Amino acid sequence: MDAELQAAFNTCIDAGINWFDTADSYGTGKLAGQSEKLLGKFIREYPGASKRDDIRVATKFAPYPFRIGEGSMRQACQETLDRLERPVLDVAQLHWPPSLGWQEAAYLRALAGLRAEGRVREIGLSNYGPRGLRRVHAALAAAGAPLASNQVQFSLISRLPLESGLVDAARELGVTPIAYSPLGLGLLTGKYGMGGKAGGSGGAAAALPPPPGPRGFLFRSLLPQLAPLLGTLAAVADARRKTCSQVAVNWTMCKGAVPIVGVKSAAQAREAAGALGWRLSAAEVEELDAAARRCRVQAQQNIFQTD
């Protein structure tokens, strides 16, 4: 799909999106590091040189048990830069809290050192809860390095960052939350249903059946319970002349987060870009919050996400 993905990437840039997130663990075996390699290729082959210079890349380093000591994190960073063919990484994120907890301090020292040397511009986390966030923030502050971001599963049906106090802690510490899965694996797109109509900006279209496989099993279980929330989402989308997806993504932005939306085609890139340039009102956010609380559906949390 490289050509289709290049077109999706180009559409993102043309629409004003210049920040891309990846990870060194995206791609295994013969495709090890493939996501970073492709992203580097897409950047180099984008036709506009001036916009190309404004592109920012964030990646995540997996705290594998075999990555021991500061040197292992430095090596991981260099391997990423080689795959991207870039001299500097804009945001270096620890992908999840290491199972070997004593390794965390070594990883943080390495990231702080890389930032001081100019090889990394900002340091971020992923899948850290409020207690871990405060611990790492304090450790990096002692090393003279600020913590820029924390990437967590966050959507209308993944509300743990709100309920755990993570969003409040991030605001207090000046750390930007990054929301992954803002569409709840597609449940919040308004495109799927158990029969009937799809919602949001032209909701007369027939709803798509749940996708095949394990995801479809999950959808068939959750969609009936989500019906009231999806109805509210569709009503707000119609009033705004937006899609359900765009409203769901904009909701995360209204909560102070930077959302990550996965796109595989130019059409999906244009859809994602439609979430930019406007904001839901406080009343609309509260209406969506209330609907989400009433339906009491919570997506399964990533097993790597901690407190």
Automatic annotation (TrEMBL):
Residue intervals of the NADP-dependent oxidoreductase domain: 3-291
Keyword field contains Transferase: no
Gene3D superfamilies named among the record's database cross-references: NADP-dependent oxidoreductase domain
Pfam families attached to this UniProt entry: Aldo_ket_red
Assigned keywords, A-Z: Oxidoreductase
One annotated GO molecular function: oxidoreductase activity
GO cellular component: cytoplasm
PANTHER family recorded: AFLATOXIN B1 ALDEHYDE REDUCTASE, PYRIDOXAL REDUCTASE, CHLOROPLASTIC
Protein name (database record): NADP-dependent oxidoreductase domain-containing protein
Species the sequence originates in: Tribonema minus
Species lineage: Eukaryota, Sar, Stramenopiles, Ochrophyta, PX clade
